[in-house]
Amino acid sequence: MAYDYKVISVGTHANPPGDMYERYFPEELKHLAPRFVTHEFPGEGTFECIELEGQFIRQLPTQVGAGATEALAETPFIRSFDEGYAGQRDPAARLADMDRDGVDADVIVHPGYPILLPRNRETRWGMMVAFNSWLAEFCNHAPERLIGIGEIPLWDLDRAMDEARRIAGLGLKGVLMPAIPGYVGAWSSPADKPYTSDYYKPLWPVLEELGLVIVVHADAAAATPGLENYDEPGINMIINKTLPSEMIASLIVGHVFRDYPGLKLLCVETGVGWMAHLVSWMDVLVREHPTLFTGLTEKPSETFRKHVFGSFLWDTIGISNKDVIGIENIMWCSDYPHTYGPFPHSRTAIDESLASLTDEERQLVLAGNAMRVFGLGQP
């Protein structure tokens, strides 16, 4: 019998346990694998952290739901990976937290750093494989409720397509891609191509055939050097919500959606208010400067409505512009286990955010749209 979805959080995270890399890192690359270790930081004490390329990386409490504990007043980092919500790494605890919060299903994307930190791309590739394998195992405890999004290495399309096929076989429902098509700072290379490039042409039909949703997350790094994810976190948090506009425009104007009509793009945790301006502005430009936009068979806003979706935590501007964006393109998320999300009071946050919607519109935002995009609830 199909699961009866009432609330789906389209934007949550899982933080793997300490043995993930030991268990799942590709055997031939094990010498590059990060290690979960205990390390003494002078003047600060001992922390459990990740040793990666000679660095000892501590975890932020806001990432794991540990921000409210008194012990954290002494340091901006957690001392043990056991701090925070157990549901970030234990599927049984995750389901219990979801029940407590009144959430039927979670769409789960990568935990943020350190997956994008290694400068060695072979290390980054191994970390992707390990995370994808662990996440699939995590989600398989309740595949109708835990919806996993994997990662693929866009700098190597053969590997990317093979990994897409593998994770689809494991039951994951989408692939995470950077909003800006290139890895900034020390990770970038001349091989990074814009999404309008023919470089990606072999990838699009594979994703379409597999039914994998293209997912962009709100922590996509800025293109400007010096504003990478954690160098200027305040500024980056302000601007990163709108960065997917480049990808949206590229896939619409670059005819990717026209040529591969089964593709879908989901912008997770980005909010949707900015999409109202983007959609309107694209239509204006195409109308006023048609020679710049050849080959379009419909208005950009019409293509957007068919292929592009976004989720939000709090977005009164987005809800008030629902008719411009499209009510069928808007979804809600809790951002669990991050502390600035509404857990465990999501139902209160939902009632406040969606007070102006009709019952039918509310159902679409809370569950119906996600069910359609991910093919959930089908017998």
Can you give a write-up of this model?
By secondary structure, this protein is of the alpha/beta class. The chain has one domain: TIM Barrel. The protein has 15 helices and 11 strands. The strands form 2 sheets. It has an 8-stranded parallel sheet with strand order 1-5-6-7-8-9-10-11, with helices on both faces.
Number of domains: 1
**How helix-rich are the residues, as a percent range?**
25-40%
Structural class of the secondary structure composition?
Answer: alpha/beta
How many strands in all?
11
In DSSP terms (H or I, runs of 4 or more residues), the helix count works out at: 15
CATH superfamily: Metal-dependent hydrolases
Q: Which segments are poorly predicted (pLDDT under 50) over 5 or more consecutive residues?
A: none
CATH topology: TIM Barrel
Order of helices and strands: EHEEEHHEHEHEHEHHHEHHEHHEHH
Report on the biggest sheet: 8 strands, parallel
> Looking across the biggest beta sheet, what order are the strands in?
1-5-6-7-8-9-10-11
Strand % is 5-15%
For the record, the CATH architecture stands as Alpha-Beta Barrel
Describe what is shown at a glance.
The chain has helices at residues 20-24, 61-64, 91-101, 121-139, 157-170, 203-210, 233-239, 244-253, 256-259, 273-288, 300-307, 316-320, 322-325, 346-353, 359-374, and strands spanning 8-13, 35-41, 45-52, 55-57, 105-109, 146-151, 174-176, 213-217, 265-268, 308-312, 330-332. The protein is α/β, with parallel strands linked by helices.
